[in-house]
Amino acid sequence: MFGQSSAEMEDDEEAAVGVVLQLASHIFDPQPRRSHKRRHGVDRDRVAGLSLLMKDYFVDESQRTYSNEKFPRRFRMRRELFLKLVDSAVEFSPFFHQRKDAVGKDGFTAIQKVTSAMRQLAYGGAPDQLDEYLCMSEQTSFEALKQ
User: Fold this and answer.
1) What are the Cα distances from residue 29, in Å, to 15, 17, 25?
2) What is the C-alpha to C-alpha distance for residues 107 and 97, in angstroms, rounded to an integer?
3) Rg of the chain, C-alpha, whole Å
4) Which residues are registered as beta bridge partners of 100?
5) H helices of the chain, where?
6) 106 φ, ψ (degrees, to nearest 5)
7) Rounded to 5 degrees, what are φ and ψ at 100?
8) Do residues 89 and 110 touch, judged by C-beta distance below 8 A?
């Protein structure tokens, strides 16, 4: 820098900006779609995940697996607040609406997606930790957290 003329410094700055823009274009350009490769999904039985979640925390108290005292310990909030968050999430973002997937099967419910996000926030866990309990993929769990 010292001993360089202002023209040389401007050239260096332009070169640096060019390098940064070139790197950014590689990072942010979407990958071309490869139509010849098929995705092989794992059937995680999302209905079983929903029924387990509902049986554990959200059905009538006499049929629940866990008592009312367990909910705040597991979710770090009261059940009523959690259900208000689910309702707010559905109003806020279409992501939380239950939709059909490409095959026509029902997707995850709002309560499953919000549970995934809240568990990740409450425990600081990775998105793939909830695969066995909620039957939700890492990608869907991460998207729920992001939303």
Assistant:
1) 21, 18, 6
2) 9
3) 23
4) 106
5) 6-28, 46-53, 70-75, 79-92, 110-123, 131-134, 138-146
6) -60, 140
7) -90, 145
8) yes
**Residues 64-85: pLDDT tens digits?**
898 888 888 888 889 999 999 9
Contact yes or no for 58/114 (Cβ under 8 A): no
- 122's tokens: 């409450």
Query: Are 107 and 101 contacting, i.e. CB atoms less than 8 angstroms apart?
Result: yes
Amino acid at 62: S
Give per-residue pLDDT as tens, 24-34.
Answer: 555 555 555 55
Residue type, 16: A
Q: How many whole angstroms separate alpha carbon 84 and alpha carbon 129? A: 25
Please report, rounded to a whole number, the percentage of residues in the chain having pLDDT higher than 90: 19
Residue 113: name the closest of 141, 132, 91 by CA.
141
* CA–CA distance, 75 with 64 (Å, rounded to integer): 16
Q: Give helix 110-123 / helix 46-53 axis angle, nearest 10°.
A: 70
